[in-house]
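User: quick one, sequence for these C-alpha cells?
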C-alpha cells in the first residue's frame, strides 16, 4: 500500500513558535485517518532522546508512524564554516528522524543568493550532501532533496528551484542513501512542467509532497517567478485542497504507478483548517485506490 502522511502547513508557525503544542497537533491528527505524520525540524522543544521517545510513542499510540522529517539546510552560503554548520545540522536531523522511527529526511540546496556562480553553487551543494551520506547510511535514513520553492524563513528562493539546476545536483550524487522528494506544485511555480520533471527523476523518487497551489486574486504565476529578495513565503501563493489546484494528479499518479512507486505521499495542507486536510487525504485515498488498487 502507498502510505499517506500529513504535514500541518496551516500550523507550522504556531507549533514552531510555541502557540500550539506538538502533542495537541498529534492528537488532532487522528481525524485524518492516514498512516503517518511528517515532522518539521522546528517543531521540537529539544532533541533529547527522552523527549523524542515521547513524541514517537504518542504518534504510535494513535496508530500512525513518523516516516519523514522536513529540514531546510542552506548549503549555498559562501563561507565554508557556515556550510559546515549546515552539514552538522543536517546530520543531526538524520539522527532525529532515526530516533523517531522514520526513514526519510529532507534536504535542500540553499538560498539563491545574488552573485552565486551556478557551477560553484552546485559544487557546494553536492559536496555538502555527500558529507552527510555516511551518517545517513549508518542510521538507515535516506536523504531526499526536494524540488523546492522557498523556505518560509528564507530571504531568497531556492538555488535549485529550476529543473536544470535541480537535475545537475541530483545526477551528480550516486548513493543508495539519497533520492528525490517530488513536489509537483513547486515545479509549476518554477515555470517547469511537473510531469517532465517527474519523468526525469521517476527512478529516484523516494517520497512525494502532494501539495496543490492556487494564486490569490490578481496574482499571476509570472509575478511569483520574478519575486525574490523578501523575507518569508509569498502570501499570495496559497496551499489549497489537494486535487483542486494547478496539478493534474491523474497524470501524476499514473506515472508513479507505472514507475513502481512504493514510497510515502505527504500532504502539505490545512491553510483553512482541518476540514480541508481531511478532504485532501480522502482525495489521495481515491487516487491510491484508482492507480494502486489499495
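Assistant:
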Amino acid at each position: 500500500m502507498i502510505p499517506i502522511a500529513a504535514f500541518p502547513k496551516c500550523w507550522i508557525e504556531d507549533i514552531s513558535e510555541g502557540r500550539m503544542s506538538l502533542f495537541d497537533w498529534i492528537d488532532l491528527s487522528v481525524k485524518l485517518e492516514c498512516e503517518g505524520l511528517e515532522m518539521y525540524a522546528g517543531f521540537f522543544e529539544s532533541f533529547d532522546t527522552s523527549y523524542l521517545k515521547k513524541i514517537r510513542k504518542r504518534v504510535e499510540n494513535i496508530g500512525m508512524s513518523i516516516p519523514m522529517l522536513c529540514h531546510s539546510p542552506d548549503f549555498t552560503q559562501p563561507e565554508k564554516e557556515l556550510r559546515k554548520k549546515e552539514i552538522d545540522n543536517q546530520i543531526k536531523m538524520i539522527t532525529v528522524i532515526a530516533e523517531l522511527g522514520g526513514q526519510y529526511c529532507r534536504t535542500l540546496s540553499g538560498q539563491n543568493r545574488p552573485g552565486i556562480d551556478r557551477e560553484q553553487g552546485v559544487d557546494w551543494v553536492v559536496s555538502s550532501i555527500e558529507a552527510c551520506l555516511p551518517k545517513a547510511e549508518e542510521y538507515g535514513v535516506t536523504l531526499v532533496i526536494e524540488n523546492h520553492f522557498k523556505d518560509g524563513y528564507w530571504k531568497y528562493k531556492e538555488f535549485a528551484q529550476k529543473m536544470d539546476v535541480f537535475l545537475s545536483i541530483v545526477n551528480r550524487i550516486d548513493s543508495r542513501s539519497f533520492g528525490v522528494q517530488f513536489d509537483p506544485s513547486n515545479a509549476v511555480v518554477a515555470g517547469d512542467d511537473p510531469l517532465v520533471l517527474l519523468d526525469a527523476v521517476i527512478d529516484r523518487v523516494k517520497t512525494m509532497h502532494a501539495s496543490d497551489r492556487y494564486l490569490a486574486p490578481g496574482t499571476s504565476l509570472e509575478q511569483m517567478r520574478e519575486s525574490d529578495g523578501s523575507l518569508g513565503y509569498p502570501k499570495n501563493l496559497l496551499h489549497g485542497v489537494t486535487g483542486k489546484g494547478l496539478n493534474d494528479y491523474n497524470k501524476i499518479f499514473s506515472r508513479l504507478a507505472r514507475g513502481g512507486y512504493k514510497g510515502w505521499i505527504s500532504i502539505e495542507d490545512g491553510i483553512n483548517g482541518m476540514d480541508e486536510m481531511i478532504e485532501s487525504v480522502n482525495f489521495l485515498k481515491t487516487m491510491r485506490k484508482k492507480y494502486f488498487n489499495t
